[in-house]
Design a protein that fits this description.
The protein is α+β, with helices and mostly antiparallel strands. It has a domain at 2-113: 3-Layer(aba) Sandwich (Aminopeptidase), CATH 3.40.630.30. Helices cover 26% and strands 32% of the residues. It is built from 4 helices and 7 strands. It has a 7-stranded mixed beta sheet, with helices on both faces. Strand 3 (64-71) and strand 4 (74-82) form a beta hairpin.
Amino acid sequence: MIRRATRQDWPEIVRLSVEAFGASAWPWKRWRDLLSAAPQPVAEPVQALALVAAPAEPPPPLAGYVALQMIHGEVEIQALAVAKGVRRQGWGTRLLNAACERARQAGCHTALLEVRLGNLPAQAFYGHLGFRVCGRRPRYYHSPLEDALLMRKSLVAAASPCTEAGADAT
């Protein structure tokens, strides 16, 4: 089940963030602010939220999360993580699909994300789901210092927004 994250999910989201990103994980205050924000109407120009994947049978309590921000027709996928114990079971794909679909329904036409230059598995994952490299941000990441690749995907062409580019969604 994919659902909007709540304040009650905060401790598990922070744990997953540290597990996945170590020293470059978001600070707890950023998660607190995101999860404490009241839901905004779709018509608002900026909408930030997190979605979580809650498997039917724990552990872990959450399979993963995705944080996103929608602004003026674009969605930025800000963070995506899946718990170590349930990786390679499709949770990342389901979370990204849900984020892209929610953004598409809110009127977004493009999805953007940054990925570490050295994170080849993540680049392959996003590429398989239709994201394409469209730029580079020098020295974007810290701990360790590393460039980011900027990846973009159109949300208007496909019925299922995060399927492989060119694939028939029917």
